[in-house]
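Fold these two proteins, one after the other.
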Amino acid sequence: MALLIGGAAVLATMLGGSVALLHRGRLHLILGFSAGAVLGVALFDLLPESIELAGQRYSAPTVALFIGAGFFLFMFLNRVMLLHPPGDAHESTGHRRRGALGAASLSFHSFLDGVGIGLAFQVSAAVGAVVAAAVLAHDFSDGVNTISVVLKNNGQRTRAFRWLLVDAAAPLAGVASTYLYSLSQVHLGLVLAVFCGFFLYIGASDLLPESHHRHPRFVTGALNIGGAALIWLTIHLAAF
């Protein structure tokens, strides 16, 4: 059953990414939605889940420390290691690497989504169904987000599509991996906390400013809120 859900996650991710590729001319609108969705995943999904899981052993300030570590680690990789001064001959390479870093982060999060599905079904079918519903709800946005991050950083359509394939396959691989090992809920919570920091940086420092650059602020602002609201709504409905 878990593998079937993983296959459905592949299709949902591919559908979202395909929509983003077909409407590249309106990338700023897609980025607006994507920014809200990324922040929504961080605030309404990863943050509460990391506190709930890791809170069985660690205090809230400790979980917050892991979130901050993820945020500043991504900032360091993004600003210090991957970027070059304007006009540098390697600037375009730096942008491609930044896009790859963002896409890889999103793909690894999708892998963890699959891990979550697999581990949840190990607990019970009911718990697995709830987790699966939440994952499938935002996998469409995951596909959009992956395409957006790569295209925003001077990536070509073929490169973006390759990363989409990686992201789409990630949840199925995550589900399959749970047949080989087990991960405690506490440690899974800490990993989710780090990725919450990653996503806060990607959304607030990368996608959000770009979505408003030289474009109507009302429309993009509405899409920012709409993306976050959609994530909140789907997660809220999946909890019932």
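Now the second one:
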Amino acid sequence: MDLLIVILVAFAGWLWFNTPSSTGAASQDGSQPDNLSKLTQGVASIEGYFKSGSLPQRTNNPGNIGTYGGKIASYPDAGQGFEALQVWIQNHAAQNPNWDFYDMFHYYLTGDTLSPGGPGQSPDSYAEYVANYVGVDPTTPVSTVIG
């Protein structure tokens, strides 16, 4: 039964990112949704979203978006959780167009681009994982990757 839920959630995430919507509209070359989708999928992967019973799966929050005080947001469904992650990334990339993956994910994990991270956190490794998932160098500005 758990495997069926994981498959359904993965399919819903795939369907969400492959269905045209008002958020993340495609540029003429079609690059933005693909790269934004890859980026959010990379975050979801490193956060453990695709593991059965994980906290991000139980809360429909693939990015474990929450407060720095440890409270994690919960969404009614996976689509809304992925959309919240997309919006977070898009907003921060737009506000900070020079941020590369290191800056983005240091801030994402700690609330500060210069913080080394807390116990069990490695913002540099996180940034490198997500950049590799997307297929870019982690020193690439996120804003140029998502368009």
